[in-house]
Structures are given as structure tokens and as C-alpha cells.
Design brief:
Belongs to the L6 tetraspanin family. It holds the Pfam family L6_membrane. It comes from Anser brachyrhynchus. This protein is mainly α. It has one domain. The chain has 4 helices and 2 strands; from the N terminus they run αααββα. It has a two-stranded antiparallel sheet with strand order 1-2. Helix 1 packs antiparallel against helix 2 and helix 2 packs parallel to helix 4. It is elongated. It starts with a helix and ends in an 11-residue tail after the last helix. The relative contact order is 0.21.
Length: 183
């Protein structure tokens, strides 16, 4: 496949993924549509991994995917790769650490942090009842952090492919030859 076509395909795929990452990160601020106090929102959401990492950094890459300047495309792809990895890492940490929730005494804590993998809440749904407020916060976090993890990983892979594609395009040309004498 021509490097220019590959770049366009990757850009077309990355754009909706970046938008989904931004929306997913924003939804983490409003569990079940509730507006919470700032101190009641899970701390890992404040790293803006979906908005900044998988959203803006990757979206910047999308805007310039169609450029013929392959070295600029490589640089922006590296930024997108870093953004995708950033999103995947913080989403993983959010999944492992669990949500901030009220366990019934009116105080918001992280009841699942520092648990071993053997006792992790992800593998034991019976422990989910420990969180009383916000309602369904565990499922909310699991779904949204999982979406962000998947998006970050996919974007990182696509941006890595684009780095290789851009380097090949820089070394070998973009295969966008002008047709001389053909009508």
C-alpha cells in the first residue's frame, strides 16, 4: 500500500477514536450522570489521559496525517504514540486501583487499592457491594477505564505503524508520482 494512502487510512481511524476517548474521560467525572464534589471524583481521572493523551495528542496527529511532510508526520505520530501509551497506562492504573466511593459512613475512600491480584475486585464481584455511593460506581469505572485502555492501546499501535510508514515514506518517497504524458 502507498504510504500516503496508509497515512490517510490511519488518520481516518484515529479521529473517531480520539473523540470517543475524550467523551469517555468526560463521563468519568459524572458517574451515572451525577455531579459530584471534586473531592469525590477518582484521582486518576484528573490526569486527563483520555482528553489529553488519547484525545488531543492523537487528534493533532490526525489533522496532519494527510501532509506530504513525512518527517513532520513521524514527529506527530510519535506524539500520538506517547498519548496512546499515556492513556493506556493511566487507564490500567484506574482499573487496578478501583474507584473512590462512599462505603456507607459518608467518607469517600479507595476500598480496593493495595489489594493483591488474587483479591482484586475485578475478579470478585461480590466485593462490589462495599461501595454505596455513587450508585454503580464500580461498573461505571470499569466500563469507561476499559474503553479508554482499549482506545489508548489501539491508538498507540496505529501511531507506531504511522511512524514506520512515515519513515518509509521519507526514505523511499510517498509514491504520489505525477503521471507524465498520461491522460
Amino acid at each position: 500500500m502507498c504510504t500516503g494512502k496508509c497515512s490517510r487510512c490511519i488518520g481516518i481511524i484515529l479521529f473517531p477514536l480520539a473523540l470517543c476517548a475524550i467523551v469517555s474521560n468526560i463521563l468519568l467525572y459524572f458517574p451515572n450522570g451525577q455531579v459530584l464534589q471534586l473531592s469525590e471524583i477518582t484521582d486518576l481521572v484528573w490526569f486527563f489521559h483520555g482528553i489529553l493523551g488519547a484525545g488531543i495528542l492523537v487528534r493533532e496527529k490526525c489533522c496532519f496525517c494527510f501532509l506530504r511532510f513525512m518527517l513532520l508526520s513521524v514527529f506527530l505520530s510519535l506524539l500520538g504514540l506517547a498519548g496512546g501509551v499515556y492513556c493506556a497506562v493511566f487507564s490500567s492504573m484506574g482499573l487496578i486501583g478501583g474507584p473512590l466511593c462512599d462505603t456507607g459512613d459518608g467518607e469517600y475512600i479507595y476500598p480496593f487499592r493495595n489489594n493483591t491480584l488474587e483479591y482484586n475486585y475485578l475478579f470478585n464481584q461480590t466485593t462490589w457491594s462495599i461501595c454505596k455511593e455513587p450508585e454503580n460506581i464500580i461498573l461505571w469505572n470499569i466500563v469507561l477505564f476499559s474503553i479508554l485502555l482499549a482506545i489508548g492501546a489501539i491508538e498507540a499501535v496505529l501511531c507506531f505503524i504511522q511512524v514506520a510508514n512515515g519513515l518509509i515514506g521519507f526514505i523511499c518517497g510517498t509514491c504520489m508520482r505525477k503521471k507524465v504524458g498520461m491522460q
